[in-house]
Design goal:
By secondary structure, the protein is an alpha+beta fold. The protein is 28% helix and 32% strand. It folds into 3 domains: 212 residues, 7 Propeller (Methylamine Dehydrogenase, Chain H); 126 residues, Immunoglobulins (Immunoglobulin-like, Sandwich), CATH 2.60.40; 137 residues, 2-Layer Sandwich (Heat Shock Protein 90).
């Protein structure tokens, strides 16, 4: 019987047919793109989703679900009398679906034109392509052989994969699968599978697999394909460093070229290579002897000291590594035959990459010693610097304490004595209040004591004022004091001071002690020398500061009295505190000369 337009079939352009297990016949047509159901000699038209393109393949699931795939990459599912779009099974670019296949585990396998194989299982979608080891990304036909193998045809011909390996890759338990190809090496001529209509492949009751091709019918008799239990022997054919051969298999063969006969023989027992440290890449070429199906020999390799796991190379027969640091390595390669039987021993090549000088033990030891010495030096420098800082702080604190003690002593000796004297004079004035002349004398003496106290206080304030810590300020203050002091004593003063002294910093100790030496010297002149003229001279050189006080008085004729002796002793002690030279020259009747030479400290 024939079904066509007259019997209700909407188009005569039939693209795909599917006979269901319940006897239904599903028909997919072009122009229009429709899906029809032939049941009990009645044709039923199923409602299609919008935007659906031509149906190219159909399959029935283990639960009776009818699936369809379109040239627009859509996966459709029949739900009652309605066709729904299974959106979860459509991911990525809209590659055309060319075949569908279901397996007993409930999986729907989808063959794409250029996008490999997809799997839709329990609401999860996964895709496998050539990057995971699939022989071809163009899948036209797909059949299970009932023995755990899935047979596929594509642009490159017929190949087989294990369903278990496909599932493992799809579920993430493995990253690579092995494809077994059948081409010229296995006695098959070049062929082009049929991909415009489906079904174009089927499995017979006797287990034979039938594939339609443009050159004829391809039959696979699975029961006559025997597994090969012998793994192929693996050989390393050559080793190259920066594209230059350094080792070769059977390099000593008599027919080798003279240049290659000098290379290391990879077949020699106990061979071990010494590779140079400066290189950009190392390449290993290997092969395996198989006369039954050489194209289906797959390899995996590992470089001990670099790789942590085996690298699945598939049919590729070379391995390339970038620059390797100095050290010991071992390259291992093993292979499997078309039946998936792996060789247990494979090929092992130990080799050494010579280290550059900075990778050698003596350089590392030297570097460690240098680093340790540098750390010790830095720690020592930081510790000493911190110690010097603490010492400097302690010295500054000591100088500050010393200066405070000196200020307290000066205030006690000079200002305190003046205040005590002034108090006694005022008390005497009160006691002689009935004697006007005596009161006036005491008050005048008290005023003189107050003036002395003010001068002492002014000198103390000047000595501690940081603004006066320069040499010009010191010279100016000493000169002004000497002029005023001698003018009050009615003694002529000859000042010889530098016009432009250098802006050299001076310490408070120097200012204080030098000023008191000059003050004591002038006080001795006024009290003891009976001089009419005093010369005050200050000379500044790069080496020292020189101060001279000379008078034309009576000089020192005999052992001086206690007051004069104490004054001279104080001047000498103050000069010693400054590490300065103190010199006293006196001639009876010819005056006295006092000189102080203060050498500048180093670095000042």
């Amino acid at each position: 019987m024939t079904w066509g337009l007259r019997e209700g079939l909407g188009s005569q352009n039939v693209r795909s047919l599917l006979q269901a297990t319940n006897g239904d016949l599903w028909v997919a047509t072009d122009t229009p793109n429709r899906l029809w159901l032939l049941r009990e000699e009645q044709i039923h038209d199923l409602k299609m989703p919008n935007g659906v393109r031509s149906i190219r393949a159909m399959a029935e699931g283990i639960d009776g679900t009818i699936w369809a795939g379109t040239s627009g990459g859509q996966v459709l599912r029949v739900a009652g009398s309605v066709v729904v779009n299974e959106a979860g099974a459509q991911q990525g670019l809209p590659y055309s679906v060319r075949c569908l296949h279901t397996t007993p585990d409930g999986s729907l396998w989808i063959g794409y034109a250029g996008w490999g194989v997809g799997r839709w299982h329990n609401g999860h979608y996964a895709r496998i392509d050539a990057a995971q080891g699939l022989y071809d990304d163009y899948i036209w036909q797909m059949l299970s052989d009932g023995q755990g193998g899935l047979w596929l045809t594509g642009n490159h011909g017929l190949f087989q994969v294990r369903l278990e390996e496909l599932v493992n890759v799809a579920e993430g338990r493995s990253e690579h699968l092995r494809s077994i190809t059948y081409g010229r090496n296995e006695g098959l001529p070049a062929m082009q599978p049929v991909c415009d209509n489906s079904p174009a492949a089927c499995r017979g009751q006797n287990g034979q697999l039938w594939f339609a091709t443009r050159n004829g019918l391809l039959v696979v008799q699975r029961d006559k394909i025997r597994d090969n239990p012998r793994p192929p022997p693996v050989l390393l054919s050559d080793v190259k460093v920066d594209d230059r051969p350094v080792a070769l298999l059977d390099s000593q063969f008599p027919l080798r070229a003279p240049g290659k006969s000098k290379l290391t023989d990879l077949r020699a027992p106990g061979v071990a290579l010494q590779l140079p440290p400066r290189h950009s890449k190392i390449e290993f070429a290997f092969t395996a002897l198989s006369f039954s199906s050489p194209g289906n020999v797959h390899f995996r390799h590992r470089l001990k000291g670099f790789d942590t796991e085996w690298v699945e190379a598939g049919p590729q027969r070379s391995a390339r590594y970038p620059h390797l640091p100095g050290g010991r390595y071992e390259f291992e390669v093993t292979a499997c035959n078309e039946s998936g039987v792996w060789s247990q021993t494979g090929f092992h090549l130990p080799f050494v990459v010579e280290p550059v000088f900075w990778q050698r033990w003596w350089f590392r030891a030297l570097l460690l010693v240098t680093f340790t010495a540098a750390v010790v030096a830095v720690v020592r420098y930081v510790s000493f610097r911190r110690l010097r800082l603490q010492m400097r702080l302690l010295e500054q604190q000591a100088v500050l304490d010393k200066e405070r003690a000196r200020i307290a002593k000066d205030l006690h000796d000079d200002l305190g004595a003046s205040m005590t004297q002034m108090t006694l004079l005022l008390e005497l004035a009160v006691q002689h209040r009935h004697e006007p002349d005596a009161v006036i004398d005491r008050v005048q003496d008290g005023l003189q004591a107050a003036r002395e106290a003010i001068k002492s206080l002014d000198a103390a304030v000047w000595a501690v004022n940081p603004a006066n810590n320069t040499l010009p300020e010191l010279i100016a203050y000493i000169g002004q004091f000497g002029m005023e002091f001698l003018q009050q004593a009615k003694v002529r003063c000859d000042l010889d001071l530098p016009d432009h002294p250098p802006e050299r910093p001076v310490s408070a100790e120097l200012r204080h002690n030098l000023f008191l030496i000059v003050k004591e010297a002038l006080n001795n002149v006024v009290r003891h020398a009976h001089a009419s003229e005093v010369r005050l001279r200050i000379v500044v050189t790069d080496a020292a500061l020189n101060v001279l006080v000379a008078d034309n008085g009576r000089g020192i004729e005999r052992m001086p009295d206690d007051a004069l002796a104490d004054g001279l002793r104080n001047m000498r002690q103050r000069a010693e505190q400054l590490n300065a030279q103190f010199q006293l020259d006196s001639t009876p009747g010819a005056g006295t000369r006092i000189a102080v030479q203060y050498p500048w400290p180093p670095g000042n």
